[in-house]
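Journal club prep — side note

Before the paper discussion, L.F. wants everyone to see what a predicted structure for a comparable chain looks like in token form. Sequence:
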Amino acid sequence: MTANERHFKRDAILSAKHRTWGYNVPAADIDFLMVEYDQRVAKALIEYRHLNGAVRIDASIQAIINLADRANVPFFIVQYYYDTDTGKLWKEATIDTPAFFRIIPINDTAKQPQYAWNGFDWLSEQQYTEWLHKIRGRTP
């Protein structure tokens, strides 16, 4: 892997260039959008945001809502934090560090009962994994 890829410079340069191309060429620099799928069929779009990141329905999120609506898939923002976080600063975590998740349904499809999790409160990693199976119509 090149140094530019290890340090994300390659993508940052393109993102910076795109901003210079003008006001009438908007684009969303998506931080962590995942397509959850099952058997090659998209089941949901999920934008992951750390607990310290803002959750705003800005122009880029509205564009993802439009994409999800046109594809007829639910769109969620999922906030997360690690057991090592202090509440103010992100601290290094590993794959073994417990994580916690809060599911926020964004488009109307995501607000349908089959996607609900009781309470929409913070979920443990196990509960969140169960929900990921649920939105696929599967069991863990």
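L.F.'s comment for the group: Helices lie at 3-6, 9-20, 59-71, 125-134. Keep this in mind when we get to the figures.
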